[in-house]
Specification:
Layout (H helix, E strand, L loop, with lengths): L1 H18 L1 H6 L1 H6 L13 H27 L2
């Protein structure tokens, strides 16, 4: 569970900085203050968690496929 939470937090930080790089570098406090007005698909302040969760599910699926392939091909 600790490993999965670490993966989620790292993914959250990576996506936050990657998507809003210019805003984080020029005015990070304003970026945090504007979070409740975030307009991503009408999700408001929940959009970072929702998008991170979706990205986490995709990463989890790839990890699951990788484990299955490792079992099948025996490496």
């Amino acid at each position: 569970m600790k490993k999965e939470l670490s993966i989620f937090i790292i993914l959250f930080l990576f996506l936050s900085i990657a998507v809003h790089f210019e805003a984080w570098m020029s005015h990070p406090i304003d970026q945090i203050k504007a979070l409740p007005q975030g307009g991503a698909l009408g999700l408001g302040e929940w959009h970072p968690l929702v998008f991170t969760f979706l990205a986490y599910l995709v990463a989890w699926a790839f990890r699951l496929i990788g484990r299955g392939a490792k079992k099948i091909f025996g490496k």
